[in-house]
Design a protein that fits this description.
CATH superfamily of the largest domain: L-asparaginase, N-terminal domain
Strand order of the largest sheet: 4-1-5-7-10-11-14-15
Shape: globular
Strand content: 15-25%
Distance between the termini: 33 Å
Largest sheet: 8 strands, mixed
Oligomer: single chain
Radius of gyration: 21 Å
CATH class of the largest domain: Alpha Beta
Number of strands: 20
CATH architecture of the largest domain: 3-Layer(aba) Sandwich
Order of helices and strands: EEEHEHEHEEHEEEEEEEEEEHEHEHEHH
Number of domains: 2
Helix content: 25-40%
Number of helices: 9
Length: about 350
């Protein structure tokens, strides 16, 4: 294993796989079988590269859990054939997909690296080439015959992050992603600087299990001053609702107006898990600081701690799909499963 690593490159869609028509100026997807034509530098990498493309590339705005399952299945079917996987994906929803894959892969012991770009691969100033080349290099990293990265990562603009810790922070800059509550796993400079202490260290002896049951009948509600009782009651009355993520203020603060407490209580009585995550880019929910938070904690609201919203949603979909008993759900959610929270 890893003498000359075999890497599978999976193209799902997104800007990174587009080139500009010289006559019309319009963008269109290119054939990834011709990858070396556009990036001849890949010939210099000390690994074997194979490609697999979605027949119909998906704009990341249209990415759904069914597509997450498709990506997971491709990796599952090729897991024994390859030493690492690089997934090319549109940047807008990359953190959602990458977070979901991190939960779906139990006992993952090989690198699964997501990357993309802000400019098409054929653009003169593109960031696609560096992101792609370095992602493949990272997926190829080995020590003592074992991959160095054994988790789902997201690489963008000289940094590899733990995927389920990332958020897209900028629509225009090349440095499009950040991980405010967890340090980069690798920083790309003259050399690849690996933060070994930050890496997940799974038991490589355990067999990979791919969990494909995801529950998408969930709701994300961002709290704001002036949110109305009628709005909340309408949203919460959805009969098929299975879970709720609340984006709250600061360290997890929520209004304690009687009508809102009543609405939350009704959901909890229906057995619907409610996850408290902060609207802040960094920091953590702490439900033991303020009296209002303590009240909600006693009602049974689950603390998302320092999890990102993207990861909170993915984790909720994943755990709801595992049919965990109600009395174990809170404890399980508040436990770090893939390094997604403290």
């Amino acid at each position: 294993m890893c003498k000359k690593p075999k890497i599978l490159l999976i193209y799902t869609g997104g800007t990174i796989g587009m080139i500009k028509d010289s006559e019309t100026g319009s963008l269109h997807n290119f054939n990834f079988n011709d990858l070396l034509e556009y990036i001849p530098e890949l010939n210099l990498l000390d690994c074997f590269i194979s490609t697999h493309s979605f027949k119909s590339p998906i704009d990341s705005s249209n990415m759904k859990p069914m597509h997450w399952v498709k990506i997971a299945t491709i990796i599952e079917e090729n897991y024994q054939k390859y030493d690492g996987f690089v997934i090319l994906h549109g940047s807008d929803t990359m953190s959602y997909t990458a977070s979901a894959l991190s939960f779906m892969f139990e006992n993952l012991s090989k690198p699964v690296i997501f990357t993309g770009s802000q400019l098409p691969i054929g653009d003169l100033r593109t960031d696609a080439k560096e992101n792609l080349i370095t992602s493949i290099q990272i997926a190829s990293l080995c020590k003592n015959g074992e991959p160095i990265i054994k988790e789902v990562g997201l690489y963008f603009e000289y940094k590899l992050y733990r995927a389920n810790r990332t958020t897209k922070i900028n629509a225009e800059h090349f440095e499009a992603f950040d991980s405010l509550n967890y340090p980069p796993l690798i920083i790309s400079g003259v050399k690849l600087s690996v933060n070994h202490q930050a890496l997940l260290k799974p038991n490589s002896e355990k067999k990979l299990i791919v969990r494909k049951n995801l529950e998408s009948n969930i709701l994300l509600v961002k709290m704001f001053p002036g949110i109305e009782e009628a709005t909340i009651n309408h949203l919460f009355s959805f009969s098929d609702l299975k879970g709720l993520v609340l984006e709250t203020y600061g360290s997890g603060n929520i209004t304690n107006e009687k009508w809102f407490v009543k609405a939350i209580t009704k959901l909890i009585e229906r057995g619907i898990p409610i996850i408290n995550v902060t609207q802040c880019s960094g920091g953590s929910v702490d439900m033991d600081i303020y009296r209002t938070n303590i009240q909600y904690r006693k009602l049974g609201i689950i603390s998302g701690k320092d999890i990102t919203t993207e990861s909170a949603l993915a984790k909720l979909m994943y755990l709801l799909g595992q049919n965990i008993s109600a009395n174990k759900f809170k404890t399980t959610y508040e436990t770090s499963l893939r390094g997604e929270m403290k």
